[in-house]
Amino acid sequence: MSQTETISDKDQSQTDEDRPIIVKGARVHNLKEIDVEIPRNKMTVITGVSGSGKSSLAFDTIYAEGQRRYVESLSSYARQFLERMDKPDVDFMQGISPAMAIQQKTASSNPRSTVGTTTEIYDYMRLLYARIGRTISPKSGKEVHKDSTKTVIEELHHQFDEDTKFYVLFSIPEHEEKGLEDELRVLKEKGYPRLLHIEDESILDLTTDDVDPDNIDADNYRVLVDRLILKDDEDTRTRIAGSLETAFQEGSGRCSVKIRDGKELNFSERFERDGMEFTEPKPQMFSFNNPFGACDKCEGFGKVSGIDENLVIPDPEETIRNGAIAPYSGEKFSRHLRDLIKVSARYSLPIDTPYQELDDEVKEIIWEGKDEYIGIRPFFDEVKSQSYKVHMRVFYSRYRGYSRCPDCKGYRVRKDALYVKVNEKHIGEVAEMTIGHARDFFENLELTEFEKEVAEQVLFEIRKRLKYLDEVGLSYLTLNRLAKTLSGGESQRISLANSLGSSLIGSLYVLDEPTIGLHPRDNDRLINILKSLRDIGNTVLVVEHDPEMIKAADNIIDIGPFAGVHGGEVVYSGSYNNLLEANTLTGKYISGRKEIPVPEKRRKGSGKVIKLEGAMEHNLKSLDVEFPLEKLICVTGVSGSGKSTLVHDTLYAAIQNQMGTYKDEIGHHRKITGTNYIDSVEMVDQSPIGRSSRSNPATYTKAFDGIRDLFSNTRQSKIMGYEPGHFSFNVPGGRCEACQGEGIQKIEMQFMADIELTCEECGGKRYRKDVLQVKYRGKNIHDVLNMSVSEAIEFFVDEDRITNKLQTLEDVGLGYLKLGQSAPTLSGGEAQRVKLAKFLSKSAGDSTLYFFDEPTTGLHYEDIAKLLDSFNELVNNGHTVIIIEHNLDVIKSADHIIDIGPEGGFAGGKVVATGTPEEITEAEESYTGKYLSEVL
Fold first, then answer.
1. Which regions form coiled coils (predicted)?
2. Which residue in 563, 582, 691, 748 could disulfide with 51, CB within 3.0 to 4.6 Å?
3. How far apart are CA 450 and CA 874, in angstroms?
4. What residues pair up with 461 in beta bridges, in sequence order?
């Protein structure tokens, strides 16, 4: 049998489901013609040092090919760009399924997009409220519904005994155009000559009595349709139904029934109650993104420009009597406080209770006023009306900001949408719940059999989505949380839950470090989610460094051995057990043969502290926290416990505000002391180093200035008269004008993402041909921009001005980055480390407080060791470093830990423990302590 026959027989025996994904000769970026085989319907983890080529294999090769094949199936309009859409540089690929990438990009910058709308939960909630919501009258608290002859008869039998005598009536029609005399004449002609006085039940006969219309009070009379006795036989029911139908018809959809010597019952075929007409629920009515459903005043944003409650009540723990209301504390307006105290005495209002503990009714009086007390809002309206006076304008501006919309109370939808309730909660109240609480609410809904039947499918979809969001560790997020405020890890886990919710099978999911932002406690839940994605029939490909995730994988591919040009090879492929013995960096760290050492001693610091008191933003429970200076401080805790709120929104913002350089909102707190001990503050977060594709590591670190000077000083440049500007791709002169130095041209696609294509004029080299003729040591400016940082350090070895700037990039583990790599293509972790390198290059001098948000994002153990060296260098130079982190290797290396928790969301926001890592392990409540004790 020939070899060909054997292969084809083997192919026959393998169904499509079993056939693995095969990649041969992949050369994308730094990959060195690698061959990999990825088993189908299994979970494969691709690991390796940063910059070794993991993303090049997972995203730029496998996912890109899956996406390209998808575009091939689209319209001819989309396909016309395909010839110019780069095919991954690979010899052969087989077995690629439809691919989905779940990356760490913040989902949306749209101020209308929330967790609820992104996950479609809010859309299903709108449907649920439109189908089974009960409209409740705000006046009587009773349900609003339309009446019909059938419901009126049922109501009469339900309320009254048989043989009860009653009248069927309707109101005298309104007579704005006609006089009452005309109306009465028309009633007589129609055959309704008798009027019933509603109180004494006397009857006025329009045909016989001498009626003077001026003596008739139309409000006290009704038109009599019939006098009846309540019985449960067919004839009586038919007669009652006929009379009611007539009364509804003549009374423009309204009628009443007066019990003999008893009360009058009003009925309406319209959707109304208590004299109010309501809108019948429909899905658009609950949408704040639709003009029909959005609140008119705030247009569906929930906030309006006006007075900021946090500025008016700076300390909610203070009582009203002790001056909680800041604008009344001065002598000029103190009379309003005296008025409020008088009103409080009259109505027994608890003004000696802290403001935050007051109930909504009391707060309503404080804000809206009562009797002689003006109220905070009317007070500021009065101040605003005097804005022609300078001092009044200054006073008003002191309290300006954004506050909850007074019309919709911040719920974003029109007022009457909030009258519709399911289980006594309107849609705004449910949207303010955390995912954990919303899951309980929807699991335990009390519904009638009819409602269950109507809402079954909608509830199934809501519960399924909430279950997945809860299981990926996002139970602490509220449904109305703005999508733009989510971290990269949270956005990615929401996308993951969405994918699970859509229950696709036979697909390829490519994930980029889904454990980012997750406490070790929550990793197990995430791993179970990925396994369930695999178990329903999908292939899961994860780029990851987390040891737990690697351990859970069915197959592991380790790329290396090092980064950049020294990486791009498959150094290991196989099971977890064999990896423990493999001679690779990952294998050595995971098996414990190599490790990041615990510091021999913890730094004592300078003895000075920055103290933050009464931090109350979001879920923080009035925290008092000390941050000791000249130490490496880690702020830890489970996801959603309040770490970012404490560090970013409150501490960093408050220090910036004291230094006079902060314009955004500042987290609510009482006071901050000790900021005089530091000279400056730097936030090194994961935001891009530049939004423009023109920004890159060379321009950001200013190394490019030195490189351009070198090129302009070559003999060839002098002959051609080239200045340093000719070697910049940002200004006209030496750049290619067809793409204006971008190297790419953007094509706008209808209904699809724009496609970026290489510039045909310069072939993506960014410069004019004559400028590319200028060479320094045999390389032109384009060749230099294509060098990695490590190569450039060797190439410019004698040029200190350039190598000093680049060496810090090498020190933080970014030696593999290309000098000209466009800023938007850098991951969040890489952007953060480029910023760190910039600060390291000028670290001497003033005392600076540095903030880092999860700097280990995207880092292998080997890179974390380098990163810790950089942090230690900063602290040893007299600076202070505060890090929000979940990585145990960084936490165990800290001098001081502040552990926030114990849980996420409402159950978090407390300081669980503070001290050295050793002291944290002794705190029983601390989840971080439990995991730390395993590595110490």
1. none
2. 563
3. 67
4. none
- For residue 671, list its beta bridge partners: 613
Block residue for tokens 């400016």:
781
Q: Classify domain 133-144+271-294+415-486 by CATH architecture.
A: Up-down Bundle (1.20)
Q: What are phi and psi of 673, to 5 degrees?
A: -130, 160
- Sorted by sequence, the CB contacts under 8 Å of residue 35 that are 6+ apart come out as 22, 23, 24, 25, 26, 570
Minimal CA–CA distance to 427: which of 45, 79, 134?
134
User: CA dihedral in degrees (318, 320, 321, 325; nearest 10)?
Assistant: 90
Phi, psi of 733 (to 5 degrees): 145, -80
Rounded to whole angstroms, how far apart are CA atoms 652 and 658? 10
The crossing angle, in degrees rounded to 10, of helices 234-250 and 149-159 is: 120
CA angle 400, 401, 406 (to 5 degrees): 100
CATH level 3 topology of 3-106+487-591:
Rossmann fold (3.40.50)
Return phi, psi of residue 724, to 5°.
-55, -35
Report the alpha-carbon distance of residue 800 to residue 880 in Å, rounded: 28
What is the average pLDDT value for the chain, to the nearest integer?
Answer: 90
The domain defined by 303-404 carries CATH number 3.40.50.300: no
Distances in Å between the Cα of 703 and the Cα atoms of 73, 206, 613, 720, 802 are 45, 102, 43, 24, 5
- Is the Cβ–Cβ distance between 509 and 478 less than 8 Å? no
Name residue 259's beta-bridge partners.
166
Q: What Rg value do the Cα atoms of the chain yield, rounded? A: 36
Could you give phi then psi for residue 307, rounded to 5 degrees? -95, 130
Residue 526's CB is within 10 A of a number of other CB atoms, namely 22
CATH topology of domain 609-687+866-935: Rossmann fold (3.40.50)
In terms of DSSP H, where are the helices of 416-538? 427-431, 435-443, 449-471, 488-502, 520-535
Task: Identify the burial level of 154 via C-beta atoms within 10 angstroms of its C-beta, where 0-12 means exposed, 13-18 middle and 19 or more buried.
Answer: exposed
Asked if residue 932 has pLDDT above 70, the reply is: yes
CA distance 555 to 36: 11
Pick the CATH number of 697-824 from 1.20.1580.10, 1.10.10.60, 3.40.50.300, 3.10.560.10: 1.20.1580.10
Same topology, domains 3-106+487-591 and 609-687+866-935? Answer is: yes
| pLDDT band at 420; cut points 50, 70, 90 | very high
Domain range list for the chain: 3-106+487-591, 133-144+271-294+415-486, 149-269, 303-404, 609-687+866-935, 697-824
What is the end-to-end Cα distance of the chain in Å, rounded? 61
Which residue type sits at 122? Y
Above pLDDT 90, what percent of the chain? Answer: 71
Comparing CA positions, the residue from 730, 761, 725 lying closest to residue 745 is: 761
Question: What would the pLDDT profile of 491-547 be if each residue is shown by its tens digit?
Answer: 888 988 888 777 788 999 999 888 888 889 888 888 998 998 999 999 999 999 999
Closest by CA to 510, choosing from 21, 5, 10, 176, is 21
Q: Provide the 8-state DSSP code for 516.
A: T
User: Tokens representing 543?
Assistant: 């780029």
**What tokens appear for 548 in the block?**
């737990």
174 burial via Cβ count (<10 Å: 0-12, 13-18, 19+): exposed
Assign domain 149-269 one CATH number from 3.30.1490.20, 3.20.20.70, 3.30.190.20, 3.40.50.150.
3.30.190.20
Residue whose pair of structure tokens reads 């159950």 in the numeric block: 907
Exposed (0-12), middle (13-18) or buried (19+): which is 34, by Cβ within 10 Å? buried
Q: Look at the chain and count its residues.
A: 936
Structure confidence at residue 17 as a pLDDT band (50, 70, 90): low
Q: Which long-range contacts (C-beta less than 8 Å, at least 24 apart) are formed by 267-272?
A: 267/147, 267/152, 267/155, 268/146, 268/147, 269/146, 269/147, 269/148, 270/146, 271/135, 271/144, 271/145, 271/146, 272/144
Least confident of 28-42, 331-345, 736-750: 736-750
